[in-house]
Structures
1.
Amino acid sequence: MPSTRSRAAALSAAAVLSIAINGSAFAQKKYDTGASDTEIKIGNIMPYSGPASAYGVIGKMEEAYFKMINEQGGINGRKITYISYDDSYSPPKAVEQARKLVESDEVLFIASPLGTASNSAIQKYMNSKKVPQLFVATGATKFGEHKTFPWTMGWQPAYQSEGRIYAAHLLKEKPDAKIAVMFQNDDFGKDMLKGLKDGLGAKAATMIVAEESYEVSEPTIESHIVKLKSTNADTFFSMTTPKFAAQAIKKAAELGWKPMYFQANVGASVGSVMKPAGYENGQGILTAHYAKDGADTAWDNDEGMKKFYAFLAKYAPGLDRNDASVAYGYGEAQTIVQVLKQAGDDLTRANIMKQAASLKQFAPDTLLPGVTISTSETDFYPIDQLRMQRFTGEKWELFGPVIAGNLGG
């Protein structure tokens, strides 16, 4: 008869063999706070109120998308619990909400928190806690600095990339331009202005004849537009968020000022900017974009947009397909789900960041053809491509090739 030791060894070998052949979900599962066999907790911070409340639909869109995912069985059998708080576009309140999400709600990570100032306020905290601040909804370049902040990653193209692309277009089309710039007095506006100046190079000093900044707390920027028009500039850069973008377009039209007009992508939504500003006032305005425009019927037969429209009809019928922020939230939610799928049963915060930095040519349904998401350990800029657009009639019309900003490593 075999000894007790021999029988134990045989049983142990059999167990190892069984694990090797069949796999052991128990042995392979790794969880950090916020994840379990049944749940993945995701936190979010969004300006549902305040001067940037137009962006609040991004949070509503993501909530609806995760509801659909849960109805379909979740991700690897786990349901998403999405906890989204309002910070009113206020950095101190963003800090308060981030602490609440991490320390009280105990989320696995915070996804798509919106706003440059708000994310700047929580960046050091999130990195000190080693909690992913993932797919930040702002194009500030600092949110792709992987060496300094390895737990933070942006999503949309960096503002500096966008500014450089506008400069390249201007130098080609109007090299003798006299430029007036209106920029939001925070990292968003300053970042895009830097990109514009970098793109113009040595000519920036002579081409830019006026710079005017505004605070998000200002009720209106109309007086700034009057001041800029008085400089006799023939080219205008509006580095503004939706509320102020619409005000600038209306006031310029009211004054009869018709410069070559560039509008920052974040304030170029048809639904929340161009329509309230008056379509007639926006004709010929230029911007750059990376996503399909829900207001453009040219995309009606596009397979990705058909999925998007079907989703809206079923899960978010109250949201406007013409609002660029709606498509934005959908694309971000799809990217978050892709990261979670890649993470499998290793739902640790470190693996979430590893998977976010391992996206290869991922194409959410709402991105323009040729624009994809790719990241690496040294490239925390998921989307780094744009195409120029011109507002015509009631929609944006694309022209020119896909252009890369080349900020990634």
2.
Amino acid sequence: MKSGSHYNTSEDGFSIKGLSDASGLRLPVFLVCLCVYVSILLGNLTIFTIILANPRLHIPMYIFLINLSAADIIYASNILPNLMTIMVTKNNSITFTGCMTQMYIYIAMTCTEVLLLEAMAYDRYVAICHPLRYFVLMSMKHCSGLATTAWTFSFLISIGHAVLISKQSFCDTHLINHFYCDIAPLLKLTCSDTSDVEIMNYIEGVLVTFNAFVFTIVSYMFIISTILKIKSSEGRRKAFSTCSSHLTCVIIFYGTLFLLYMRPSSSYSPERDKFFALLSGVLIPILNPVIYSLKNQEFKIGFKTLANKMLH
């Protein structure tokens, strides 16, 4: 158990260090964050608009993509506006409730994205490996059920972290060495035994992230095996193009996620984690719509159709 004088976080809250201590970098960081946030909103809202406006895209893959875009918007909105406020006002304080809420939403959105990517992997597996049964196995009812389950389960399982960390006793320092409230930097401030939180981390990691990752890998093993059995090179190319966007998003997402969380808290490095957290929380919400718009032929057609309607 850690020792140290206790700090009344319930009354005074925390302070967030942010990305840089240099006052001269506040304006550039603010402008970068603003451009990134606007890009995330525009990119993901464009995904929404194109899919909803085009009946051809009202199929499970794109319904999951709408949900993924919603998660990305909430993900970024949970962090960037508060960070930009700190840059402008120079007031880096956050209430205890606000900090716990930010952490809870962050964890919930990460879990949601994991489960949605898993559902999308299953969709691609059925589409390529069992095309004749696709509309039976992936009916809109099943699709809606998978999406609803992803959101519901994520919000429920994330309660455990919020409850355990909110019950921790924090030491005399209240400066969070990060740009938002996350598990690892909060645990560095506690005077309590953190073993229960660490256990919760690994339980959630196994139940959600590891199982979803393994399921996704196995799905793609079957997908690749099926594609390689297609005789024509054109057929193989078309089959792979239907899942290349999703596979790219999976690689980027899990790469940053494992670098952030798949390690003991003793190896926590604030500066390194800030970098990977930026990749996870900022780069991914920007890249998801870009990847799907550039690599997916049906989405390109939908974008051109929408653009023609707006111009005429």
3.
Amino acid sequence: MDTGQVSEPATDVAFDKTICVAMTGASGIQYALRLIECLVQANCEVYVLMSKPARIVMGMDTEIPVPARTAQVQSQFSQMFGAREGQLKAFGQEEWTAPVASGSGVPDAMVICPCTTGTLASVAAGTCNNLLERAADVVLKEGRQLIVMPREMPFSLIHLENMSRLARAGAVIMPPNPAFYNLPKSVDELIDFVVARIMDQLGVKQTLMPRWGIDEG
């Protein structure tokens, strides 16, 4: 019998993967912002770590208002990218109770995008001076995927040795180098090329760019 009552929709949402996106103070934050947007659209839970220098770079590289506090990062990015409630969480650099600080809360993967050479050195040395460095350390020790995207040129021998050390530890070293065989017509297309490659590495379905040799028609 129809009682006129409407069933409440389920509030628990299952996300396909949990990905941590960390932004440091190198130019190229557009890659990270587009990556977060695409991960949200792909039904991933996204943890965001944003250093203070990354906020400075965001103000220089984009016209997007720069969030001053971690809570503002979470609110602003959730609204920007259309995240559902609880889908996007931001953590401060001293927030040691965050899930990413422990092996019991390790995400499926972490992407440091863009990665300064200073962060590269700290992660390679395992110093764990802040939450970002600790999160990367946890991802490596738990055997999860760490993608490091150093945005520098040229590389010194110190940079290359730090990359080599991280690669031996299991990290993927992935400088954000766009290609031109797809005849890009805008900066956005160059950004999408790099983000598509990150998504492929993460095993997250993407439609930004077809894979080489595959006819999408």
4.
Amino acid sequence: MPNKTIYVSDDDLPLFQRAQELVGGNLSGAVTTALRRFIELEEGREEGYEEVVLKVGHNGVRQVRFSGALIGELQDDDEHRMARYRVYRSRKGKYVMHALLADWTDYPTGQSGNWIKDLTNWRRMLGVGDPDWGDFVLVIVDSIEELKDHLPDKLYTRVADIAERPPIEELDI
């Protein structure tokens, strides 16, 4: 097996020592794992993918992470329910549907008993950022057709059209 020498600055030595402790002494294995992850992320970025972190479950208590590209989204709210859908193409060619489905009757009103304190949560009241309540649904499929029953028709039509095209169209101009 060929040997490679890596020169480490004095400032970075504690980082390498800590990595070696965490992997039980096999620093080569830690470096190889880190390089694989780095290459995967950078090649994905070059191809138009990014790291995606999504909430899953009731009130988003779990999180999942993958490399993907957003190909469509839709917010479909009415007086009874909030529904937000996003569809991603994963780097490995799967399709990921993420939905937030919540009834307005479940909207978390202030529980403190102090209405002034509850009003200070203006970000939630104004809808700034992603909501942190409701049911966060994740569906992973091999083909876009398998998402038909999980999406509103207008979003399905849009993402099915996008899915037929390459993720990035190279222009020779």
